[in-house]
Amino acid sequence: MAELAWWAETLQNDLTQGDIVSAFPIALLPKPLKYLKKMSTLGQGKTGWLEVSDPFLDENDQTYYLAKGRVIQGIIVSHSCDIDKNARRILVAPIAKIESLQENHREAVVNQTNIRLMALPNVPGLGDAYADLRSITAVPAELIHELKRNASMTDQALLLLQTRLIEFFTRKQP
Amino acid sequence: MSNFEMYQPSAWIDHGLTHHVSTVVKSHQMSIRKAAKHALIAGSIFAVSLGNFIPIDMSPVQVAGYLVLKQSMPNVSNIDFGHDLVPVGFWPKLTSSMNTWKSVESLSTEHDPEPLI
Predict the structure, then answer these.
(1) Does the predicted interface ipTM exceed a cut of 0.95?
(2) Does the domain at residues A20-26+71-169 carry the CATH identifier 1.10.1060.10?
(3) B97, B3, B95: which is closest to B44 by C-alpha?
(4) Do A173 and B59 lie within an 8 Å CB cutoff?
């Protein structure tokens, strides 16, 4: 029986679903939530951010807030169709080494039996890793396109990724 | 309701399969979309096994996956979309991990590791 080849020998020409991208910040809202208001009254032309309890809207009706997170590698989750059509947001799942998991969690991940964590064997430059589907996040496309791509999936592995995404979001076996 | 009805195969064909055709199997001579359509029409039960015929439901995504794999592994033979049985040696490799997801235990979050973010 043929082993599943996970990583293509060469990168896809363009950013593609399943690509591994270099580390970038992925943020999460901490608790308690802290909104920010831009201040220009710090003197000497300096500006700063003041923590406020309620959302402060800017001229575009957007607000700022404190966030925490990690600078971490990711795997592209957005469908290549959307990326090809210049999607402005690209969905990315953070990935990390299998060894970063507690030992009692590793077996289920490696055996692909944890529906929320997808094992990614032998990721080029990273080794055995996993993608955390619970932490998929939307990232501005222009930021993603600036990142270095470390690997592209083979067709078979990409199919498995898509299968796992269907399972994760629908609990249905495709 | 069959899996095929649940998954709205026409929608999958129009988007999922055609995407595979356009981006995954450009270099292949066979029209995957056309073959998948035939496969879907042939019936909702296909047999997939290594030597034995084990009937399972195949969704259009699986059909697409099967076809893509078939195209990339020409040593697999005996495919006839006019019949209900399709022997595929490598299919269990791809789906073996999915079988365990049927258990309720595997869906529990009680013992999940901390999220990465």
Answers:
(1) no
(2) no
(3) B3
(4) yes
